[in-house]
Every structure is written in structure tokens, then in C-alpha cells.
Design a protein that fits this description.
about 300 residues; Rossmann fold; 2 domains; six-stranded parallel β-sheet; five-stranded parallel β-sheet; 13 helices
Length: about 300
């Protein structure tokens, strides 16, 4: 295969999880041009880390044609994206296969329907395995070798980490108290307990996005010396996370990103707190899961000698 497209609309965590599918395709077809159609800015992140060669923002108006009945003339720019593609992996709901049919009408040779999310009750298993499964099944059906990727981690350089950390020093921890849903958020007082213990041996950075800026500001005030990193651009956030010794967060896209980054051989020591969602479905690779009531256990496992 020489040209492969992967369509993955969704939030940060959805796109970061999909890196395992892109890594498998890259390992099997190292010379192929792989394009990612996703929502910006999270889709651009995977291009920055070389899991895809090019990116198109799936929220752009040009893609609206894919959701129609195919009777109107498609934009030429859209036709150019799909023309001569050997395959497209569609991680999106597609009732009646309307999107898949329109993609093939644009000149893509075959479309692989990929369920976008596993069942929340755990019946589909681990999310990362669930996302990878359609790619591996396709490769086997087409008699391609299934090549295990060397790594799907996002490699960050030391200069990038130093620029993002802004004087935190070599030893710091990152706390991220937000998520995509309030019901998944650990109480701030629990984050504060962990942060106060970590502050004995580490500089503490608190990250937040637009939706959880108030929570971040409150948390910083409860941890002596903590610094607030508010609404970082994703490449800067990835670099900050890669340089951390430890990360604590809720079941969120940022937690998936924290588990996906590395600085050379070193990765953040990730602790993810789960409430209503299941760790057996959503725990990032290499991270440790805790239930919301386990604040003492989290704190005791996170503090190193000074």
C-alpha cells in the first residue's frame, strides 16, 4: 500500500489512543504516505511526532460532503485527498455506510469500517487493543504481515522539555485536575493532598484547559510553590509532561497524552484516578490505576526521598 488514510474525529484522548493503529500501519508499510484526518489541534500532534505524514482537519467544511447522499458534486480539494488512496480506515459511526460509499466514490480503493469506541461496560476489552484490532484483522485478511511497531511513543527532546518547563528544574511533578466530564473528576482536596506531599521533594506544575481553569487556579493556591500552566498548546503540553517525573490526573485525554510521551528512555510515572469509568477499558499503557477513594495509596506511592 502506497497511500493510506485514517479518519479519526474525536477529542484528544480518542486521537492519542489511535496512535497504536497508525504505528502498526507505519511498521507494516514503512514507505507509504499515511494521512490523518482528525480534529485540530490534536490531529496535528500525531504528525508532529511522525506517526502520520500529512493531516487534514476533519472539521473543515470541505468534509461535509462525506455526510450527504453523494448526489452533489464533491469539492475538488476533497477528491484530491482521497484520489488513489489504497485504503482508508474509518473510525467513525457510519449508519448505512454512507460515509464509506462516498469515500470510495472519491477514488479510494477500499474502506475499512472501524468502531470508534469500545463499550463502557468492558465487554469490548481494553480501548487500545480495541482500536488496533480492525487494522490487524485487515492486514491478515489481505495477507500482509502484521509487523509489531518498535514504539508508538511520542519522543520529545530535552530542549523542548526545558522550554516548556519554564524554570521548574529537573525534578517536577504534573497534576491535571480536569477531564472531559465533571463526573470523572477527583475532588480538588484529594489532588491537593497529593500535591502537598509531592511538593516536599518536587516542583509541582498544575495544568488546565479552558474548561477547568478555575479548578487549576484553586488547586495551585492549595499547594505551596505550585505553578499554573494554563491552556498550553498541545506540543508544549506534551513536552512538559515528558519531562515530569510523575503525573497524576483523572481519566482524561491529557492522561493518555502523559502516558504516550517520553524523553529518551524516560517516561513520566503516571497515576490515573478512575471514578465512574473502568480502568480495564481506559487505562493508558504503562500507567497505574487508582479508584477515587484511594487517595492515601496514591500519595504514599508517589513520594520519593529528597
Amino acid at each position: 500500500m502506497k497511500k493510506i488514510l485514517l479518519l479519526r474525529p474525536g477529542a484528544l484522548g480518542d486521537v492519542v489512543i489511535t496512535r497504536v493503529a497508525l504505528a502498526a500501519l507505519r511498521a507494516t508499510f514503512p514507505a507509504a504516505k499515511i494521512g490523518l484526518l482528525a480534529t485540530a489541534p490534536q490531529g496535528l500532534l500525531l504528525v508532529d511526532f511522525r506517526l502520520a505524514d500529512f493531516f487534514h482537519d476533519f472539521s473543515s467544511a470541505r468534509f461535509a460532503w462525506l455526510f450527504g447522499d453523494g448526489s452533489s458534486r464533491p469539492p475538488e480539494a476533497l477528491r484530491e485527498i482521497f484520489r488513489d488512496a489504497d485504503g482508508a480506515f474509518l473510525y467513525s459511526r457510519d449508519p448505512g455506510q454512507a460515509i464509506a460509499k462516498n469515500i470510495q466514490a472519491l477514488g479510494c480503493r477500499q474502506v475499512v469500517a472501524c468502531p470508534p469506541r469500545p463499550a463502557e461496560d468492558g465487554s469490548d476489552g481494553w480501548a487500545y487493543r480495541f482500536i488496533l484490532r480492525p487494522v490487524e484483522e485487515f492486514l491478515r485478511q489481505q495477507n500482509y504481515p502484521v509487523v509489531a511497531p518498535a514504539s508508538s511513543l511520542f519522543q520529545v527532546s530535552l530542549p523542548q522539555v526545558r522550554a516548556a518547563a519554564r524554570g521548574l528544574g529537573k525534578r517536577y511533578a504534573v497534576l491535571h485536575p480536569g477531564s472531559g466530564g465533571v463526573r470523572k473528576n477527583w475532588p480538588l482536596e484529594r489532588f491537593a493532598e497529593v500535591g502537598q506531599r509531592l511538593a516536599r521533594t518536587h516542583a509541582v506544575a498544575v495544568t488546565c484547559g479552558e474548561a477547568d481553569g478555575e479548578a487549576g487556579q484553586k488547586l495551585v493556591r492549595q499547594i505551596e510553590g505550585a505553578a499554573l500552566f494554563d491552556q498550553l498548546e498541545l506540543p508544549e503540553l506534551a513536552a512538559l509532561l515528558a519531562g515530569a517525573e510523575v503525573y497524576v490526573g483523572n481519566d482524561s485525554g491529557v492522561s493518555h497524552l502523559a502516558a504516550a510521551v517520553s524523553l529518551g528512555e524516560r517516561k513520566p510515572d503516571c497515576r490515573v484516578v478512575f471514578g465512574p469509568t473502568l480502568a480495564e477499558v481506559w487505562l493508558p499503557p504503562g500507567a497505574r490505576a487508582f479508584r477515587g477513594e484511594d487517595s492515601d495509596a496514591i500519595a504514599s506511592t508517589l513520594v520519593w526521598p529528597g
